[in-house]
Amino acid sequence: MKTLQTCLVVVFFLVAGLQLSGCGQTDGTILEASAVQKASNDDVDEDDDLEFKVVLSGDQEVPPVTTTTTGEAKFEVNSAQTRIKFELEIKDAVDILAVAGAHIHCAPANQNGPIVAFLAGEVPGGFDGEVEIEGTLTDANITDDACGATIADLVQSMKDGNAYVNVHSAANPAGEVRGQFGRDEDNDDQDDDDDEDDEDEDEDD
């Protein structure tokens, strides 16, 4: 039986492709992998202009998948729309990333589409438990121009709901959990925060 894994994989993208540093098994301890390539100070300090949150579940797969695995992905786009920083968190995983990895695909809800950017590569044996992945995408990481050839093009597809996150596993190589950009329910928390702000302003008046 596999040991529960709680694993933080720091992902840095090179022009040649994706590189993942290694990560071991542990009982509830987060392991930070060594960085392959450090971001420059300019990249770190640059203001982020857009944010996206995607909730991943098996019922969004096409066809739907019955699974206890869930996930969430957050994306921050810089103001020039040349870079996307992301955080992908998977919970209750079983052999996750053992096949194919995790990606952004280009297609609307209820349709499958091609991979346009890697979030993580295939990891032999996969991971169980909780997995966290962080990384950065640039134009060099666009693998298919179905959603455009640049980060700016991809961001527009994300805004339009024409892209989704898909995470693969050994049991479900076509996708264990999926999350569509632009789903209204994923923006409910933000809408609630905005409503609370409006109420506070009315009380102040």
Count of β-strands: 10
Structural class: alpha+beta
**How would the global form be characterised?**
globular
Task: Write down the oligomeric state.
Answer: single chain
Strand content: 35-45%
Enumerate the spans where pLDDT stays under 50 for 5 or more consecutive residues: 1-45, 185-194
Overall pLDDT metric:
77
Percent in helix: 10-25%
DSSP helical segment count: 3
Order of helices and strands: EEHEEEEEEHEEH
Blueprint of the fold:
Elements: E1 5-14, E2 17-20, H1 41-45, E3 48-56, E4 70-78, E5 84-96, E6 102-106, E7 115-120, E8 127-137, H2 151-159, E9 163-167, E10 177-180, H3 188-204
Parallel strand pairs: 1-8
Antiparallel strand pairs: 1-2, 3-4, 4-5, 5-8, 6-7, 6-9, 9-10
Description:
The chain has 205 residues and is an alpha+beta fold. Helix content is 15%, strand content 37%. It has 3 helices and 10 strands. It has helices at 41-45, 151-159, 188-204; strands spanning 5-14, 17-20, 48-56, 70-78, 84-96, 102-106, 115-120, 127-137, 163-167, 177-180. Strands 2-1-8-5-4-3 form a 6-stranded mixed beta sheet, covered by helices on one side. A hairpin with a 2-residue loop joins strand 1 (5-14) and strand 2 (17-20). It is globular and about 40 Å long. The N and C termini lie far apart (61 Å). Mean pLDDT is 77; it is low at 1-45 and 185-194.
